Amino acid sequence: MSFFAPALEGNKTQQYVQFGQQLAALIGDEPDFIANMANMSALIFHQLPDLNWAGFYLMRDGELVLGPFQGKPACIRIPLGRGVCGTAAAMRETQVVPDVHAFPGHIACDAESRSEIVVPLIKDGVVIGVLDLDSPRPGRFDEDDRAGLESAAGLLLGASKLD
């Protein structure tokens, strides 16, 4: 199978609509959660501008463990409630952080990261992981990113079979 993702066009809201269409086409009828996370992280990394990391952490025995990603090597384990990822998972809500250096307890996996957005992955009321994006640009993420990425996460969860 060959997949080509054309460049996103229009304003940010329109770009996320196109991104969702690309993601849906990429996932197709593939139920494997790991495969879909791997392709989704690659699509995010190559389609959304100003990113230096895009990927997933999965809930394992009460902590977040590194999953499929694109970017530099990352922290392997994150306790619940710690850092932006652990906070998003513990609070069960998306965290949009314009300046990671001002976030209490921030975990610096990459010193170049300046802003971050983390979307919790919740299926049947259970947090199964998080989607994490980092940027070297302060203030990179906003409410349009929150809405677009929450929608994309919902598409991922709806299409994938969880073990």
Could you describe the 3D structure shown?
This protein is α+β, with helices and mostly antiparallel strands. The protein has one domain: GAF domain (Beta-Lactamase, 2-Layer Sandwich). Helix content is 35%, strand content 26%. It contains 4 helices and 6 strands. A 6-stranded antiparallel β-sheet has the order 3-2-1-6-5-4, sandwiched between helices. Strand 1 and strand 2 form a beta hairpin. Helix 1 runs parallel beside helix 4. The radius of gyration is 15 Å and the shape is globular. The protein starts with 11 loop residues before the first helix and ends with a helix. The mean pLDDT is 93.
Report a brief summary of the structure.
This protein is an alpha+beta fold. Helices cover 35% and strands 26% of the residues. Helix 1 packs antiparallel against helix 2 (33-47) and helix 1 packs parallel to helix 4.
Helix and strand pattern: HHEEEHEEEH
Provide the structure class: alpha+beta
Large-scale geometry: globular
Which band does the percent of strand residues land in?
A: 25-35%
List keywords for this structure.
4 helices, alpha+beta, 163 residues, 6-stranded antiparallel beta sheet
Topology summary:
Blueprint: H1 12-27, H2 33-47, E1 53-60, E2 63-71, E3 77-79, H3 83-91, E4 95-97, E5 115-123, E6 126-135, H4 143-159
Helix pairs in contact: 1-2, 1-4
